[in-house]
TrEMBL record:
Keywords: ATP-binding, Isomerase, Lyase, Metal-binding, Multifunctional enzyme, NAD, NADP, Nucleotide-binding, Potassium. Binds 1 potassium ion per subunit. Its cofactor is Mg(2+); K(+). This is Bifunctional NAD(P)H-hydrate repair enzyme. AMP binds at residues 407-411, 436. Residues 222-491 form the YjeF C-terminal domain. HAMAP family: NADHX_dehydratase, NADHX_epimerase.
Amino acid sequence: MLHEFERILIGPREMGLVDADAAGSGIDSFRLMQNAGEAVAALALARYPDSGRFVVLCGPGNNGGDGYVAAAAFARAGASLCIYGIGSEDLKGDAARARARVEAEVAPLSAYACRPGDVIIDAIFGAGLSRDVPQDVARIIADATKLRLPIVAADIPSGLDGETGEIRGAAFSATDTVTFMARKPGHLLLPGRELCGALHVFDIGIPKRLVMARAGKLWENGPGLFSDALAGPTAESHKYARGHVAVFSGGPTSSGAARLSATAALKAGAGAVTLVSPSEALAVNAAHLNAVMLREADSRAIRAMLGDHRVSAFVVGPGYGVSAALRELALSLLTKPTVLDADALTAFASEPKSLFEAIHAEGATVVMTPHEGEFGRLFPDLASASGSKVERARKAAARSGAVIVYKGSDTVIAAPDGRAAINTNAPADLATAGSGDVLAGITAAMLAHAAPAFEAACAAVWIHGRSGQVAGGGLTAETLVDVIPQAFPEMV
Ligand SMILES: NC(=O)C1=CN([C@@H]2O[C@H](COP(=O)(O)OP(=O)(O)OC[C@H]3O[C@@H](n4cnc5c(N)ncnc54)[C@H](OP(=O)(O)O)[C@@H]3O)[C@@H](O)[C@H]2O)[C@@H](O)CC1
Ligand SMILES: [K+]
């Protein structure tokens, strides 16, 4: 399990503050730049010992400074070297100092023509990228991409926004990225994650407490975030002590989704699971269930479950059908921890406020699991707002009062108090029919273990991703459910 420091993600702006704090506490900032640049050069020399030539591309800020330090290290190592820079005569501070120590000629960046055999050291833009890259940089990126040149990026591939993971006009696709002290959100969010290649985090000597002091509440998702919150089921524990999940089924032709949620909840360790079914779907549900209990959905049954202390979490939405009745049902369940998924999200598209007000008024424990389309229906203004997926999920959580699982290949989990995690273990195969229903069921099982909503959601997303890895290529929602228990041993 990763130590907490290794899981934190720190935005470029906060990293700038860490930098200033380090300088303020008497740490030599030029020493930090030297450590950074030398780490980049060391990695490149180790990875490409037979390189035709190292081409160091240096920008106008401190990322460029790292590049000049790397260039000096290549020269000392006797490697073949070319240096191209933007505004190399107008550099300031540490970058100017690093440039002054380079004896080789520095040509203007626009003069660089890629050629096969080059290994590019990308030190054009790092944390300070503030707009789309200029045309000559975009041209070099296109040429290097076409020739598939190896690229070692300093801090972050140029053109990639370290906060959002978005591409500003064009970005290098690196073979390796060497970043400093801690990863940035843009290294994990898509499409950024796919442009970083192998990501190396190098300790350049800033005390960890300074980094921790500026880090926001953002982490890579993983067991360290949630394993303490999950009381593991023991051999002696009574089935109801491991929680009882109730899942609401749709009608006879759309009952499969709820059954997937129900069986996933059971496999994820809920002590008992009941499928609550409309009378007309009882027969089809009964034909497909064994360990999951079945109960007819009438108002008496729902009242009884709300009053039964053993019933600990609900799932509503998968395959239910969008209707006013679903809105009413969802609102009536909020006295217990509830997962709202699929149709239960779309049902509130025309009146999301009524849901959010009810959640806030009730102080309800709710996890909502929207994919991109459902997120856009519930939070249309946020979906089209600029900023990162993390920011959008955080705002949605604060507004709704629910923990938001904003699904995708880079699922973000966000809590109303601002905590957030980016999930990275989901294989592409997980994007299959019924996968979301499985996630909703696992989430309810975690809530039924009495885990707080944020930790429950983080655990569920991670278990879901890990199960996807175990199930492998060609997985279906059914094979995914079967392997859920195999994800658990890796959580401790
Ligand atoms: N954190 C640490 O502890 C340490 C950090 N270190 C390193 O410092 C890096 C951050 O340095 P940084 O702040 O100087 O930013 P950087 O990325 O060099 O760019 C700023 C320059 O680029 C310009 N510019 C921006 N976008 C542009 C565009 N689209 N097109 C054209 N120009 C554009 C911008 O101009 P401006 O926006 O001001 O007009 C400014 O001149 C960090 O990534 C790491 O590598 C290490 O040395 C060791 C310690
Ligand atoms: K860079």
